[in-house]
Every structure is written in C-alpha cells, then in structure tokens.
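user: Here is a favour to ask of a fellow structure person. I have my own habits and do not want them to colour yours. Could you put it straight underneath, so I can go through it closely?

assistant:
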Amino acid sequence: MGSQADLARALSFDAVATQYAAVRPGYPPALFDALEELAGRALTGADVLDCGAGTGIATRLLRERGADVVAMEPGAGMASQLRRAEPAVPLVRGEGNQLPFASGSFDVITYAQAWHWTDPARSVPEALRVLRPHGVLALWWNQADSRVDWVKAEDDRLAPFTRGYPTTVAELFTSFPVRVTTREITWSRRITVEEHIGNLGTHSHFVVMDPEERAELLGANRAVLARLFPDGELDEPYRCGLTVVRPAGARE
C-alpha cells in the first residue's frame, strides 16, 4: 500500500476513465447521513477535500449535500472526466501522501474507494495536518455483498485474479492520536448484466490484465450471469463500509 507499484496501479484507471464514469456505482444517501452523524456536523457549508476523487462520483454527491468541495485527483484521464462532469468544482492534481494544502484548510477530508492507494504512515499525518481542529477524515468503500449467493459464486470464480478492498482499516490508526468509529450501510442498484460486466472491467486488477485474458475471463463470467438473469438485469448488492477518524483532542 502506497508503493510505486500501487501508485502505478492507481494511475491505471486513466485508461478506463470514460467507462469508470459510466458504470461505477455511486453511494446511497444513508452513507452521508451516517457520515454527518459520526462527524457530529452537517455537510452543508463544510469545506471538504475529496481525495482520489476519480471521475467525481463522490464529489457530486457531497456537493448535493451542500458541501463546498475541492477535488484532488492524481490521474490525468480521471481528472479530465471529473472536470467534464463537475466544471464548477476546484480541481487539484495531487495525492494523499503529500497534500498540497495549507494546515487547517478543511473541515472534512474524504477518500471514496481511494484510501488503500496511500501509505498510512504518510497519509494519516498529512490528513491530520490539513484538517481543522474539529475536522474528520472519512474513508469508505463499496464492496460486493458476498452474502448474496450469485455474488459469492462470482467472487469465487474471479478470486484468483482479483484483489479486494480492505475489510477493516481501524487498526491502521492505532499508532496515531485519533478516535475511530465505523458504520456499514447495505444497499443495491438495479443495472443490466452488461453494466455489471463493465463495472468489473474498471477494477484495477482487470485494467492491468492482458487484454485477451481479461476478455476471456469477463466473457465467461458474462455467460454465467446471462443464464442466471435471462432478462438481462440484476440487483447489484453492496456493503458500504464507512470509517470516520477524529483527532483525539477534538471536541465531539
């Protein structure tokens, strides 16, 4: 995590930025409700830094909650998609291990599907530096809900080729003067089988795969899903894990 190889893999998303913007899932309103509850403040009027903002999926939803958002994204292709989708949002090229902002600049720092690309030994102190005294760091990931039978079967088929998101991150903060709270939100979205396959194809392990191997693997998975969902649609279920980190000396 946070190595040069990880950085290269993170930047690989530039190759699929248009597809990413089209098929990646968003986040449910309940996630932002939980963030406000655990942060002890509304997002309306908050100065928010959305790190690893990608194509702006979380950026847009944070703005819809009334936050004043600055987006930060290292990849040129992803940043181009974000600029197209959210032209009014200030956009900075940078990464979480070395935040290009003054100390005490933000009320909330968010990482949506992006924290695992950082080195916590560097990114945690940087977040604490850039946060205001009352501020919080919020990390979240959508993970496919493998309690659903077809998702579990798909995970098993693809497991040799994939790398999942962290299931817990609280232990990463034990050496820092912070308090950590967590929440899980379950939700789903109704999409087509083709959109689901397209979503899978934007995950880094597939992006960096040999194109022929990727096409063969995703094609075989498509054939299984076509038999399971002959009408061409499915409910794509998620468990969205939220971690909120507050400096230990901050007021509730």
Remarks:
- The chain has a mean pLDDT of 92.
- Strands lie at 47-51, 68-72, 91-92, 106-112, 131-144, 178-192, 233-247.
- Residues 109 and 137 are 5 Å apart (CA to CA).
- Residues 211-228 form the longest helix (18 residues).
